Amino acid sequence: MISRPELSTLARVRSSVTSLGPSERKVAAVILTQPDDVMEWSTAEVAQAAATSTATVIRACQSLGFRGFQHLRLELARSSSSRFRAHDAATGDPANDDSGADDTVARTFADAVEAVRLAEENVETAGLESAAAALRTARRVVLVGNGFSGPPLQDFAMRLSVVGRAAEAPVDALAQQFAAHSLREGDLCFALSYSGANVQTLRACTAAADQGATVSLVTSYARSPIARISDIVITTGPAGASHDVDPFLARLGHTVVLHALHSALALQAPASDVSGMRHVVFDALTEE
Questions:
Q1: What are phi and psi of 233, to 5 degrees?
Q2: Contact at 8 Å (CB) between 234 and 129?
Q3: Which DSSP string corresponds to 71-88?
Q4: What pTM was computed for the model?
Q5: pLDDT in tens, 108-134
Q6: Are 215 and 208 within 8 A, CB to CB?
Q7: 98 partner at 20 to 30 Å CA-CA among 58, 72, 202, 219?
Q8: What angle do CA 16, 22, 27 make, to 5 degrees?
């Protein structure tokens, strides 16, 4: 018997199960154990299989990052084609063998597109607008992120300076603690954390909140320790397998969010500020 491949849609469901309530977890269990049946079932049939209500089925689908039950069915159907390709490769069918470097590249790009689409479905415009306003009006901005979240924030700090918004982005975790403790009301602590549970980032955000500063967070999980103490939370949803050392696909959504915030600030940046930065880049490229 051929083992089932790791399908992206099922991976999305599996990675979000822990954030669901008891009744919604029953729905997720049915999706994970009977995906082929769920593709053909109605909402009522899924509810019966999960021993719950149709309203819970719809709510569970939305909590898992889908627009609703029909969206889930569509994504399961799309994933089924991947399963058939994997079957052909395992049985050695040369006409349908998608193995090799070309197939790996194609799957990688397809997964990346899905990750960005997942972020688009999860990110709320109101959250982006609130975060952009906080970045624009804060007296002082400190960016906080550790591990794989550090480099994107360093890049974000540089891009903020291009539109005239100075921001501090300490690399060292201890330096982040010092900076967070010195924030006051009217200041902003802007954090990036995939899990929303990084200990060092949590400590910095907690310190900032205790000092009366606004805390804004970009994360994949809305239900997380850092999210609970944040004033503004932008959630992109999980993407890729939850056990990855670096969930890179989920970070694509984070990168797009940071770019969207930069773009929002750029719309109101004085033309003279942006023009001046272009001269800086030009001078750096033309120096001998």
A1: -125, 125
A2: no
A3: HHHHHHHHHHHHHHHHHH
A4: 0.65
A5: 888 888 888 888 888 999 999 999 999
A6: yes
A7: 72
A8: 65
